[in-house]
């Protein structure tokens, strides 16, 4: 079994995109907090104060949180496929498709956030991810 590192490129790309979203989140959140004159209170329940910010500001934070959720499966399956020597070909194409769909999902959620469209993009990316997981499982069995 040989390692196939090509699939690590989309992993790094999604990590870079997540960093962009982190920067965008704070570039909009901090000015919104200052404009609202909010005094951050550690005694208030988690997220309660941030819920007072405009929706367009919260969307970036919501998306950043989403990038901490399902993509963890992507990272795991991509590393597994790399270690199994299956990180090229169709698996690599699926990995890039997943990353592309997550970027589209981020942009949609952060700029327009029509839930039905966002759900469709999320569902499509989920199907791509499931395909990667199934392909990794089939490699083992």
Features:
mainly alpha; elongated; Four Helix Bundle (Hemerythrin (Met), subunit A); 141 residues
Mean pLDDT: 96
User: What's the name of the CATH homologous superfamily?
Assistant: Membrane associated eicosanoid/glutathione metabolism-like domain
Low-confidence stretches: none
Helix content: over 70%
Strand content: under 5%
Query: How far is the first residue's CA from the last residue's CA?
Result: 14 Å
Assembly status: single chain
**Can you count the helices?**
5
**How many strand units?**
0
In total, the number of domains comes to 1
- Please tell me the CATH architecture by its name: Up-down Bundle
What does the largest sheet look like? none
**Spatial extent as radius of gyration:** 18 Å
Order of helices and strands: HHHHH
Question: What coarse outline follows from CA principal-axis ratios?
Answer: elongated
Structural class by secondary-structure content:
mainly alpha
**What is the class in the CATH system?**
Mainly Alpha
CATH domain fold name: Four Helix Bundle (Hemerythrin (Met), subunit A)
Topology:
Blueprint: H1 8-36, H2 55-66, H3 71-83, H4 89-111, H5 115-140
Helix pairs in contact: 1-2, 1-4, 2-4, 3-5, 4-5
How would you sum up this structure, described in words?
This protein has 141 residues and is an all-alpha fold. Helix content is 73%, strand content 0%. It has five helices and no strands. The radius of gyration is 18 Å and the shape is elongated.
């Amino acid at each position: 079994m040989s390692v196939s590192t090509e699939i690590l490129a989309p992993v790094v790309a999604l990590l870079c995109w997540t960093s962009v979203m982190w920067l965008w989140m704070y570039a909009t959140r901090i000015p919104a907090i200052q404009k609202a004159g909010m005094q951050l209170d550690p005694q208030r329940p988690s997220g309660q104060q941030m819920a007072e910010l405009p929706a367009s500001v919260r969307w970036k934070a919501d998306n950043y949180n989403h990038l901490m959720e399902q993509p963890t499966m992507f990272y795991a399956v991509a590393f597994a496929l790399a270690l199994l020597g299956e990180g090229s070909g169709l698996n690599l194409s699926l990995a890039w498709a997943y990353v592309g769909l997550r970027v589209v999902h981020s942009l949609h959620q952060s700029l327009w956030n029509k839930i039905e469209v966002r759900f469709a993009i999320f569902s499509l990316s989920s199907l791509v991810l499931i395909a990667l997981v199934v392909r990794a499982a089939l490699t083992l069995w």
